[in-house]
Specification:
Helix content: 40-55%
Distance between the termini: 53 Å
Shape: elongated
Structural class: alpha/beta
Strand order of the largest sheet: 3-2-1-14-15-9
Number of helices: 19
Strand content: 5-15%
Oligomer: single chain
Number of strands: 18
Bound molecules: 5'-O-[(L-methionyl)-sulphamoyl]adenosine
């Protein structure tokens, strides 16, 4: 067991196939992981955030063939030109980026399967059945649909809508059936280990229907990690890819080495974040593999929904993929992060539309928070020469704001802790609305007309800026660029230190912004986009 005191909050995203460039579906998972890990960092926890790419398998091999390059050349180019840059585009602060073609991965994957084989869970047999290259998955007959139109008379994959291929290969098998009872017992004891609840139910019913052994190698594929005991076969791409969560943090490394210590600190993952399309791999095969190697199981697999286009999963193969930069070049990375996590209930499917995004950007970001910050900083500039006034004699109106802040921080922390982004975001947004309401009620511009109201004006301006301090901290994991700009405009950094060092548990403590700080009206946080459509 890991010592809880030294355990890092370890979160992973799926590793993405590099058969093509990223679209906003991939960016959605990475963004969610980034927001969540930034939140945990601001809780003061030690955090490790891993993402990366899945480079082996038939799908990538075939893409390279179409591009008339070697698979290695294909993945090197796409990783360098598209997959690594997209992290900066969405403003992800990952701690590591794993590529499955790296030696650290390949060697450790081989070691892992040696252990599983020594433990008696691998044997050789004939595999005959359907395979979907899009999913890189051996399908069960019940998984498939009858094709229509050009695919009439054929069985098609329900995710890709394309015919499956019939395979007949001499393969090595993983004894998945041996873990059926242990998996059921594990999930009965840990219902929180698969979320949301619908995903849990799906997984339980799949396991209860009975688990059959599954091929863990491929003989007709060359682009992969060779099986250590049979060099004519490569390890089935999923049974190579899933292991990235272990290899990247040092599985199999000398316990006294840097990697070995990282493994001790990170294992097991706190959250394996995935799209619902790959739930079965993560909630059935993956824990069974870990049991087979005597490793502790991840604490939670969270399966989010799909971004849809025309009611179907957005995908490059269906030519419905929107590149993240198409949206981010226009709205900025903060608005991208805000929109997808606020507008779609995490765990449900959702659609993207320019109209909806423009409407929310204008109402909630530009007119809501942006306007509040602009008004506050402009008024401190105008009425107080840019120096934050000291406040005495808070009235009921200010006590209400402070109480609302305490409630907001609590609700948001609970929601982010439960991976419920929209509830957390809405809590902060409602606090922003409340402070905007306070500004309207208190009319500081009217107070400023008469010097006799000076003390009251100071209290009101202080209250608005102090509220903005807390909003900046609470929204920093979600919108790090705009919030660090707000932090600077409030002059908060001098006394309080960097925004990323501010703790969630302390955010509601009223009166942290020291009087006398230099408040400046800077660049608009969310500039109006007249042509946003
Ligand atoms: N390589 C495998 C994962 C291996 S993890 C050990 C894979 N890659 S993928 O590139 O096809 O997709 C990975 C993930 O990208 C999905 O699980 C999901 O998190 C995200 N998405 C891809 N398309 C998506 C949507 N249309 N909508 C939401 N998320 C999507 O599967």
């Amino acid at each position: 067991m890991t010592d809880p005191a030294s355990k890092a909050f370890y979160l992973t995203t799926p590793i993405y196939y590099v058969n093509d460039a990223p679209h906003i579906g991939h960016a959605y998972t990475t963004t969610a992981g980034d927001v969540l890990t930034r939140w945990h960092r601001q809780r003061g926890e030690q955090v490790w955030f891993l993402t990366g790419v899945d480079e082996h398998g038939t799908k990538v091999q075939r893409a390279a063939e179409t591009g008339e390059v070697t698979p290695q050349q294909w993945v090197d180019r796409l990783v360098e030109e598209s997959w690594q840059p997209v992290l900066a585009t969405v403003d992800a602060a990952n701690d590591d980026f794993i590529r499955t073609t790296e030696p650290r991965h390949g060697e450790r994957v081989q070691r892992f399967w040696e252990v599983v084989r020594e433990n008696g869970y691998v044997y050789s047999s004939l595999y005959e059945g359907p395979y979907c290259v899009g999913c890189e998955e051996f399908k069960l007959p019940g998984d498939l649909l009858d094709g229509e139109g050009e695919y009439g008379g054929q069985k098609v994959c329900p995710v890709h809508g394309r015919p499956v291929e019939q395979l007949a290969e001499e393969n090595w098998f993983f004894r998945l059936s041996a873990f059926q009872d242990r998996l059921i017992a594990h999930y009965e004891a840990h219902p929180e280990a698969v979320q949301p609840r619908s995903a849990y139910n799906e997984v339980m019913s799949f396991i209860r229907q009975g688990l059959t052994d599954i091929s863990m190698s491929r003989s007709s594929v060359s682009w992969g990690i060779p099986l250590p005991w049979d060099n004519d076969q490569v390890i089935y791409v999923w049974f190579d890819a899933l292991l990235n969560y272990a290899t990247a943090v040092g599985y199999g490394a000398d316990p006294d080495s840097v990697d070995g210590r990282r493994f001790a600190e990170c294992w097991p993952p706190d959250v394996n974040l995935v799209g619902k399309d790959i739930l079965r791999f993560h909630a059935v095969y993956w824990p069974a593999m870990l049991m087979a190697a005597d490793l502790e199981l991840p604490r939670k697999v969270f399966a989010h929904g799909w971004l849809l286009v025309g009611g179907e999963k957005m995908s490059k193969s269906k030519l419905t993929g929107i590149a993240p930069e198409q949206i981010i070049d226009h709205f900025g990375s903060d608005a991208f992060r805000y929109y997808f996590l606020r507008a779609i209930q995490f765990g449900q499917d959702g659609s993207f539309s320019w109209e909806d995004m423009s409407a929310r950007y204008t109402a909630e970001l530009a007119n809501g928070l942006g306007n509040l910050a602009a008004r506050a900083t402009a008024m401190v500039g105008k009425y107080c020469d840019g120096s934050l006034p000291a406040a005495h004699d808070f009235t009921a109106a200010e006590h209400e704001i402070a109480a609302a802040l305490a409630e907001t921080a609590e609700v948001a922390d609970r929601a982010f802790g439960a991976i419920d982004f929209s509830v957390g975001i809405v809590a902060v947004k409602e606090f922003v609305d409340r402070v905007n309401g306070y500004v309207t009620e208190q009319e500081p511009w009217a107070l400023a007309k008469d010097e006799a109201n000076r003390a009251r004006l100071d209290v009101v301006l202080y209250t608005i800026c102090e509220s903005l301090r807390a909003i900046a901290v609470l929204y920093n994991p979600l919108m790090p660029k705009a919030m660090s700009s707000l932090w600077q405009q409030l002059g908060a950094g001098g006394e309080l230190g960097p925004i990323a060092d501010q703790r969630i548990a302390d955010v509601a403590r009223w009166g942290q912004l020291p009087p006398g700080t230099h408040v400046v009206k800077g660049e608009s946080l969310f500039p109006r986009l007249d042509d946003a459509s």
